[in-house]
Write a structure and sequence with these properties.
The protein is 57% helix and 17% strand. By secondary structure, it is of the alpha+beta class. α1 crosses α2.
Length: 187
């Protein structure tokens, strides 16, 4: 009988220890993740500062961590629009190069987001409005709508806007770079 009680006590003690280690591991893991994101932002900031120096462009670099990703933004210079390019094409390329620079130093694939001259912020508002109004038209007419090809960032903004409208849903179709959002009425 005492062996059974001892075994039960051992199981309870090990369960408590496991629960305690899970409780303490979560904040450590979260802190580790946030530390890695801050490190990504620092590496990206240094990389972009060297680029701006090479180009002799002025700009202030701001680093932040938001929604589990490093956010790097460059504002303030007159020439920064050239780093955005038509429809953000140059910005997308610079973002990818910056992610590769971060990955080279950390050994981890980066999901950092780069914004220049607040182009993404403005584009986000524009796309959210387009997604919402198109979704409302689809809900009213009952006919689906196909939007023009978009980048993954743009499609995500549109999907989020469509999700906020009752009676419709959205899906992406096609292959990059011709991948687009289709908005459907719910049956």
């Amino acid at each position: 009988m005492s062996e059974t009680l001892q075994a039960t006590d051992d199981v309870e003690a090990s369960s408590e220890a496991a629960a305690e280690s899970e409780t303490t591991a979560e904040p450590q893991s979260q802190t580790k993740t946030e530390d890695l994101l801050v490190q990504e932002g620092d590496i990206a900031g240094d990389y972009l500062e060297r680029l701006l120096d090479l180009l002799d462009y002025d700009g202030d670099i701001d680093l932040d961590v938001e929604s589990g990703r490093a956010i790097v933004s460059i504002d303030g210079g007159e020439d920064l629009a050239k780093l955005v390019g038509p429809r953000g094409n140059v910005l997308e390329s610079l973002q990818e190069l910056t992610r590769l620079a971060v990955q080279q130093e950390t050994g981890v694939r980066s999901r950092l987001m780069l914004d220049i001259a607040q182009w993404r912020a403005g584009r986000r508002a524009e796309l959210a409005e387009m997604g919402r109004t198109t979704a409302e038209k689809v809900a009213a007419s009952g006919e689906r709508a196909r939007l023009h090809p978009m980048t993954p960032f743009e499609r995500k903004v549109v999907h989020d806007a469509v999700a906020a409208v009752a009676g419709v849903h959205s899906e992406s179709e096609g292959e990059e770079p011709q991948r687009r959002v289709i908005i459907f009425p719910k049956p």
